[in-house]
Amino acid sequence: MTNLTRSSFQAHPFHLVSPSPWPLNTSISLLSLTLSAVLTFHSFSGALTVLGMSLISIDSINPFELPLLNTVLLLSSGVTVTYAHHSLIQGNRSGALYGLVYTIILAVIFTAFQGVEYTVSSFTISDGTYASCFYFGTGFHGLHVMIGTAFLAVGL
């Protein structure tokens, strides 16, 4: 008779399940979801560039005024959220809180300026393909910023 003990067929004192295909499937699914979102927004950005080259009846917004300020606000919020993240990793709670508060303030200012940009623009969503692409791209980006702001506010 053979003496079968746990150590003869198991090299560790705990139970491991067999490898599952789900982590790989989930990774591939999330990668394809992210890639499709990037390609969708890239196509709308490219459409705005191409359609903006031949504007006849639409006065487009000067990119060096309010859109440039919004870009600076977004880049600044990226810096402050990165500071908050590094402070959190280093255990600096007050630095993380200040970074998150500044990020939320910058995001709220960006959202307000985006609303101002919508009200002062000379075209509406029904004024053609350029206007539709403009409002789709900036609208979903604004929604993304608002959802991120809400998540950061909850995380405070």
Automatic annotation (TrEMBL):
Transmembrane annotation, as ranges: 30-58, 64-84, 96-114, 134-154
Keyword Transmembrane helix attached: yes
Listed Gene3D superfamilies: Cytochrome c oxidase, subunit III, four-helix bundle (1.20.120.80)
MF term (GO), any: cytochrome-c oxidase activity
Heme-copper oxidase subunit III family profile domain residues: 28-156
GO biological process annotation, one example: mitochondrial electron transport, cytochrome c to oxygen
Cellular localization per UniProt: Membrane
Key words, A-Z: Membrane, Mitochondrion, Translocase, Transmembrane, Transmembrane helix
Membrane-protein topology: Multi-pass membrane protein
Keyword Oxidoreductase part of the UniProt annotation: no
SUPFAM superfamilies: Cytochrome c oxidase subunit III-like
Example of a GO cellular component annotation carried by this entry: membrane
Reported function: Component of the cytochrome c oxidase, the last enzyme in the mitochondrial electron transport chain which drives oxidative phosphorylation. The respiratory chain contains 3 multisubunit complexes succinate dehydrogenase (complex II, CII), ubiquinol-cytochrome c oxidoreductase (cytochrome b-c1 complex, complex III, CIII) and cytochrome c oxidase (complex IV, CIV), that cooperate to transfer electrons derived from NADH and succinate to molecular oxygen, creating an electrochemical gradient over the inner membrane that drives transmembrane transport and the ATP synthase.
Record note on quaternary structure: Component of the cytochrome c oxidase (complex IV, CIV), a multisubunit enzyme composed of a catalytic core of 3 subunits and several supernumerary subunits. The complex exists as a monomer or a dimer and forms supercomplexes (SCs) in the inner mitochondrial membrane with ubiquinol-cytochrome c oxidoreductase (cytochrome b-c1 complex, complex III, CIII).
Family recorded in the similarity comment: Belongs to the cytochrome c oxidase subunit 3 family.
Protein name: Cytochrome c oxidase subunit 3
Species this protein is from: Corymbia citriodora subsp. variegata
Native organism taxonomy: Eukaryota, Viridiplantae, Streptophyta, Embryophyta, Tracheophyta
